[in-house]
Amino acid sequence: MSATTIIERPAEGATVYHPKTSEAAPAVSVRGFSLWYGAKQALFDNTIDIQSGMVTALIGPSGCGKSTLLRSLNRMNDLIDGIRMTGSISLMGDDIYAPAADVIALRKRMGMVFQKPNPFPMSIFENVAYPLRVDGVRDRRIVQETVERSLRGAALWEEAKDRLNESALGLSGGQQQRLCIARAIAGDPEVLLMDEPCSALDPIATAKIEELIDNLRGQYTIIIVTHSMSQAGRVSDNTAFMYLGRIIEYGETSTVFTQPRVQRTQEYVTGRFG
Ligand SMILES: Nc1ncnc2c1ncn2[C@@H]1O[C@H](COP(=O)(O)OP(=O)(O)OP(=O)(O)O)[C@@H](O)[C@H]1O
């Protein structure tokens, strides 16, 4: 089946093409998912399969619900008063909103990197070791190996190896963001959620994060919210375009960008609104 074949119409107005797929089952499956902040509905009947080991971009104009959907994936929205949801989300087949679901365990399986780097006020080493400390890992050799492997994985080892005991707050913004990625990796997640991870960074630091995302492809399932069309084009395998709380179009990034089937997508990717 070609990359542009419409395979289903899960929600009113949504058009889903074959996304790039891997052999593995989808990492995350969202089914008929809606969300309300009090009386205000922010997400409408969204259905999407996020492919394992691939980079999926969520794009769309401000306020369309990208962050709300991303934060629903690891239940970060749970703490907001008056929130209500219907539908389902599963991670590798496990229903994350099941009454017996363990939210702490879920957040370990889905690491999150935020818009603004948020290193803890402690040393570089302890930031990366943090997930292991929380897990009660005592073995110093395991902690040291994990810190080094995670810093290498986040392309920060060479810059940080001689200052591991210095405060993480002394790192540059771009280094801090790579540190946050290293911390997320140290927790050994299956999925990395990234909410506009480059929006506070300069172009050079942004390029490094994009290169890093490229290197992490295959090892982790990555879901990235971005305002930057060019960034989505550079880093993602698949792209979901959201509009007014709905996934309007989803498929292989090259197809969504060059041959969108929905006029709204076309208008957005060609910069006619945003
Ligand atoms: N905590 C909240 N309480 C009430 N409404 C909210 C809350 N968070 C988001 N919203 C509303 O939900 C809708 C979707 O917001 P969301 O932040 O998910 O959009 P977004 O696409 O990520 O936007 P942006 O690109 O500007 O970050 C918006 O109308 C927003 O005002």
Automatic annotation (TrEMBL):
Organism taxonomic ancestry: Bacteria, Pseudomonadati, Pseudomonadota, Alphaproteobacteria, Acetobacterales
Cellular compartments per GO CC: membrane
Molecular function, one GO term: ATP hydrolysis activity
InterPro entries assigned: AAA+_ATPase, ABC_transporter-like_ATP-bd, ABC_transporter-like_CS, P-loop_NTPase, PstB-like
Alphabetic keyword roster: ATP-binding, Nucleotide-binding, Phosphate transport, Transport
NCBIfam families given in the database record: 3a0107s01c2
Domain of life where this protein originates: Bacteria
Source species: Neoroseomonas eburnea
Cross-referenced CDD domains: ABC_PstB_phosphate_transporter (cd03260)
Signal peptide coordinates: none
GO terms, biological process: phosphate ion transmembrane transport
Regions that span the bilayer: none
Gene that encodes it: pstB
Gene3D superfamilies: P-loop containing nucleotide triphosphate hydrolases
Protein name (record): Phosphate ABC transporter ATP-binding protein
SUPFAM superfamilies cross-referenced by the UniProt entry: P-loop containing nucleoside triphosphate hydrolases
Classification via PROSITE patterns: ABC_TRANSPORTER_1, ABC_TRANSPORTER_2
ABC transporter domain segment(s): 28-269
Pfam families xrefs: ABC_tran
